[in-house]
Amino acid sequence: MLSTMQDAPLSIAQLLRHGASVHGASEVVTWTESGPRRVSYADIGKRCAQLAHALRGLGVEGDERVATFMWNNSEHLEAYLAIPSMGAVLHTLNIRLFPEQLIHVANHAEDRVIIVDPSLIPLLSPQLPSLTTVKHIIVTGSSTAGLEAPEGVQVHTYEGLIADQPTEFDWPEVDELSAAAMCYTSGTTGDPKGVVYSHRSIYLHSMQVCMSDGPNLAQGDRALAVVPQFHAMSWGLPYAAFMIGASLIMPDRFLQPAPLAAIIASEKPTFAAAVPTIWQGLHLYLEQNPQDISSMREVLIGGSAVPPALMHAFEADHNVSVLHAWGMTETSPLGSVARPPAGVTGDAMWKYRYSQGRFPASVQARLIDDDGKVVAHDGVSVGELEVRGPWITGSYYGVDAEDKFNDGWLKTGDVGSITADGFLSLSDRSKDIIKSGGEWISSVDLENAVMGHPDVTEAAVIGVPDEKWDERPLVAVVLRAGSETTMSELQQYLSDKVAKWQLPENWAVVQEVPKTSVGKFDKKRLRADYHEGGLEVTRL
Amino acid sequence: MLSTMQDAPLSIAQLLRHGASVHGASEVVTWTESGPRRVSYADIGKRCAQLAHALRGLGVEGDERVATFMWNNSEHLEAYLAIPSMGAVLHTLNIRLFPEQLIHVANHAEDRVIIVDPSLIPLLSPQLPSLTTVKHIIVTGSSTAGLEAPEGVQVHTYEGLIADQPTEFDWPEVDELSAAAMCYTSGTTGDPKGVVYSHRSIYLHSMQVCMSDGPNLAQGDRALAVVPQFHAMSWGLPYAAFMIGASLIMPDRFLQPAPLAAIIASEKPTFAAAVPTIWQGLHLYLEQNPQDISSMREVLIGGSAVPPALMHAFEADHNVSVLHAWGMTETSPLGSVARPPAGVTGDAMWKYRYSQGRFPASVQARLIDDDGKVVAHDGVSVGELEVRGPWITGSYYGVDAEDKFNDGWLKTGDVGSITADGFLSLSDRSKDIIKSGGEWISSVDLENAVMGHPDVTEAAVIGVPDEKWDERPLVAVVLRAGSETTMSELQQYLSDKVAKWQLPENWAVVQEVPKTSVGKFDKKRLRADYHEGGLEVTRL
């Protein structure tokens, strides 16, 4: 039996039309050296039409890729809306990739146009000769100064290009399953892999951002999007803001604590989103430079686990509620959100809020053990998290990666447990967990325990081969300058903090823990160092 | 370019799985003669599996229709979830239809099974011999007393049927575009027409119910669903509650002010939904029987325009906010919701809240004038409202109704204006508006003006043929018993309330304004009375 419902596709063009008309008075604020710069959503709508005409004029047709190499700003928002709405595909280039990664992803996606901010020209320019498919570079603003384009590549200013274009565009009706935007993961292993979002997935995800079990973004909100637009679509805030009419506050390149504090003072955001290090930096800064930041009803923190101390500090010192969430580029990225069950208070409430949170109805989650069996959601049993849903990726663009999927579910590479009422607690990455005599030891838990020692500034834990137990933990520590703490003193320090059988016997002092391009511990590199004899290991 | 997103259909089964597991502790409360009866969502999940097994056992396969003839209660919720999840189609029969309409819709939908509440057996039983496709009647509870089934129809008790069934069911994965539920409109003209909702449309609509520009239903809410489950799917509350984990409070047949007040006292709802007459009755009752009802953060009112006085009364007397909304069976039903723009206060805020409200991103709206042209959204220009979107019907089941659609848009039959920021104000039904010399006169505005006179208890306005002006208004009034007010006094009373050219010259006193099966003015009947000479018209 057929339904009688209309065949009305979910599309970015509909978000653009809606935001620019019904919420035309909402605004996007971009921070500059001289303070805020404002554009209304009504004007964003007109400028999106102009940008689309300009891109057509440059020959962009069909599903060709138009890339951005940009900070968070109003022009980046225009690219977010106009490029998918005209049927092309937005590719957000991560400005923090290593040069060889950047070249790989731009060529792999076959980017035809790149829109770049003037302040990022020095990062992009040297790589241009290696980009084989790019025909046009568009520099935001009115000057292309500093950009050296290779032969065959045309350079334009953004304002010059759109200036005389019509302010209306007849947005085509698209198949909702078609590609709208793509983002490459900054994976720690191998080349970055491309995730391609559809109009449908972005639209559904935007609804979730405005739902009560999600961030609950609302029309009156002023959302400070610190999380970059090149990082998992700024967690979906730009599209959700246009869906609901929330205003957006974009920090551009001013991501340090002092300008962030100035942005908050000037623009009074009600909501904000960023990784933990941003909030840690802001909190330290505010200790020295007190300021009321309580306009923010809630700050969304994800990307890595939030230290409980940080959550308490924001609440106690600033009357700002921290909302912990889990997701990844592959999940659009909203997976779980740590809203405690209504009515729960005190320690029980905090336990829920420390967790990675609960999945919405649209994201199914399951845990798989070493034998491939589904593990109970009992808050104790541990397995690798697999997820499924309409905004979860089912493959990667143009590469074979079957080992990342299990019967249609995405293998997240995260290991943890889920309670009967659906709350996820992650303990480690599956590739980092240490499998010792059939039991799993969380490298992250050990690291946190070691880093509790006052003389330890960094600690990374990896599994190393062991004849008896298969694997045992090795701790690489960075000691405070001048510290004379010994490895056995550190082991002793752990003795009342972890189970006896988990106590590490392998220790190494290092100058620095190697990091990936996005600043995470590079344990792949650390393991290579170990196997190549690059670590001086003390065995206790 | 293909997206890499998973092919994960939006389905009722996913709502059922999610609500019954993650929100297993939430509950549905059904009111009974002896107070509340409670079932947890975890148990609803088990009983849904049992119901599905039982229906399979009765031979229900594929997309066969299973109808309900029920009040709002936990068994009706189970039918809502289990029937579409097993791939069958739920048909909610309107218990207030005239017998010939009921027979028509049950036969037209080819209902195979009907689930009926014991208290409704007297309404259903006499029609059973006329139902040509029904093979099974299931009576909720444990007794079939009073039901006389025709030959060939088997009768079962609900509890007997499900008692020994397994509490798990392997819900099939459905095409999200397939039929999930159907509801016939109680149209004032012709036979009721069937709207068939898809899994996709119900799922998307449920998300909207939990969004900040919708009712914003949340996990901690306790939603009192007074609006019947046989009336536009109880405005989507049952499905949305399972999506988000809000508890449901179902009044069953106890819809009078006194039991509603008792339900509120006992169950402390935070949210409620009903048509204006329910709230008017409750407000009057509470004047005589004071009670704190402020557990309700918000009451959603739709179905017909809300009198501003009622909104103010609830806010001033009871500290309960009234949320006005517009929709129809054909729109699932959430169309527009009257949340004022953030920060607007005082009279301006009230003007927004009196209106029919603003459409969400998923519902496009336009106004069409007599010439078929799109009218500006300027708050002044008037046209017939047409809507388009993924939960708006694009046809009716098994009938040709092309005149109800315009190039894929649903013609709502409502006439009004829309402001630049998207707020809809309805003035009349298109078939009731009076077209006088090229200008439109709202019959509703005239009725409201006449009903302001203290001696008038009811007034209905229709257009009647006029040689000079094409049409002119006729007012049919019901006077207070014993009143000696004359028609010219009423016309005089209007003279400072409506424009001179709108002043009606045709008047008729009637004993009662004829009503439709759902209690609305039956203007079709009134027009027929006029043309058949059944009205005694005074021409001034």
Automatic annotation (TrEMBL), chains A, B:
Q: Does the keyword Ligase apply?
A: yes
The cross-references to InterPro entries, in alphabetical order and at most eight, read: AMP-bd_C, AMP-bd_C_sf, AMP-binding_CS, AMP-dep_synth/lig_dom, ANL_N_sf, ATP-dep_AMP-bd_enzyme
Keyword terms, alphabetized: Ligase
Which GO terms of the molecular function aspect are on file? ligase activity
Q: Which SUPFAM superfamilies match?
A: Acetyl-CoA synthetase-like (SSF56801)
Per its UniProt entry, which superkingdom is the organism in?
Bacteria
Gene3D superfamilies xref list: 3.30.300.30, N-terminal domain of ligase-like
Using the record's annotation, list all stretches that form the AMP-binding enzyme C-terminal domain.
446-520
Task: Report domain AMP-dependent synthetase/ligase positions.
Answer: 20-397
| Pfam families, per database record | AMP-binding, AMP-binding_C
Q: What is the name listed in the Swiss-Prot or TrEMBL entry for this protein? A: Long-chain fatty acid--CoA ligase
Q: Which organism is it from?
A: Rhodococcus baikonurensis
